[in-house]
Design a protein that fits this description.
By secondary structure, this protein is α/β, with parallel strands linked by helices. It is built from five helices and three strands, in the order H-H-H-E-H-E-H-E. The chain starts with a helix and ends in a 17-residue tail after the last strand. The relative contact order is 0.18.
Length: 111
Amino acid sequence: SKIQYKVISKIYGLLDLIYFRKYERNPRKALADYVEIADKRILDVCTGTAANAIEIARLHPTSKVIGIDISKEMLHIAKKKIKKLSLNNVKLYDMDTTATGFRTIPLMRSS
């Protein structure tokens, strides 16, 4: 629910730091490593505070990353992080994943 997202958005970054302290074991690193070729267009569904989108955009500056999420609070935090890092290859949209208009969304799974 939207109330849950509002509450979680305030501590989401802290949880990320606690659970993924060691960068080598971080699933975000595995995801960023999976995107090997530059000049890609990447859709980050349920982007939250855009941790994955930011990591991919940072490591692949010629790629274009779009993050979508239904939580305005999470997207607000994400926009602050993107601005602080001066990333210009990430765009965020307040959007329900089920309302994208895509007939299918290709899935990328990290192990």
